[in-house]
Amino acid sequence: MRRLPYFVVSAVCVLALWSCREERKVDISSRLHPEKMPTMFTRNVSTLISDSGVTQYKIVAPVWYVYDEADTPYWHFPEGLYLRKYDRKFNVIATVAADSARYFKMERLWRLEGNVEMRKAPRDLFLSQRLFWDQRRHEIYSDTFVHIENADHVLEGTGFVSNEQLTVYRVLRPQGIFPVDRDAMGPSSPDSVAPSASPPSSRRAPMSSMAPLRGNDSLP
Hints:
mainly beta; lipopolysaccharide transport protein A fold; 6-stranded antiparallel β-barrel; 47% strand
């Protein structure tokens, strides 16, 4: 039995290895889905976001994923988000905190979920489980239960629509409105702990006496 020359055997082995390696390379690439993979991942985020050279807001988050290759590019904050909104003089006019958030870049739409807390200077408070901020339409809205406080009243209901400044808003299906005695409650600040979203029923206004409430007329 004749032996093959050494160089022939070596060439065959090299071709076999090259073929296997090339086949594996194609197989791996076929399983990749760039649209489902983050293009950026960052921990302990603290950054300022600007628009047309003007600082709009500050983002603080434990984790930040960016999906630029998705069909609808978006940012994802799965472990919570804290946001400060500024005016043109860099004064804080509102803060937002949520358990998780997504920002859809093309639509310029924020979706905030899970114990959403929004505060507007000097002391207005908005609580909900889901909140949307549409920067194109300059509108903030929710399709879930909302709890709203200002210096004098508390309003609760389902569904909420407001301008970005939170100065003109409407609760779609009001469920209760009642006065708040701030003197009895003691001094408070926008950074204090929020009261319970379910105040004692004895302080609620009778539902039969309530009319649809709109804008700041709902909370004198």
